[in-house]
Structure prediction request, 124 residues.
Amino acid sequence: MPDTAIPVETAPQTGDRVLTVSESAAKRVAFLVANEGNPALMLRLTVSGGGCSGFQYGFGFDDTANEDDFIFEKDGTKVVTDDASLDLLAGSTLDYVEDLMGAAFQIKNPNATASCGCGNSFAA
Prediction:
């Protein structure tokens, strides 16, 4: 893997391989990035095997895009995901919801056939 960041380009919005970032999620990511003090940070969204339903979502910050990454942008905020994760996220919406129970990022995933009560894992 190279030591320098790959130039960031917004993923093409074609076909079903699209991840939509809601306005609420974009604002929350921008707030968190500002608190980190590194404007180059992107929210990395991954899907891996595990969780109580078969697959689980992972969230973290990254300032580097890899060759197999896709970057989706909303209002200057960037969300990055890898090619394999995008297969399971295609057509999804990343949202940030605040209610009486708390606040959290939520994935509205049309590929999920079932999900756990906490919303952090799903079956496809």
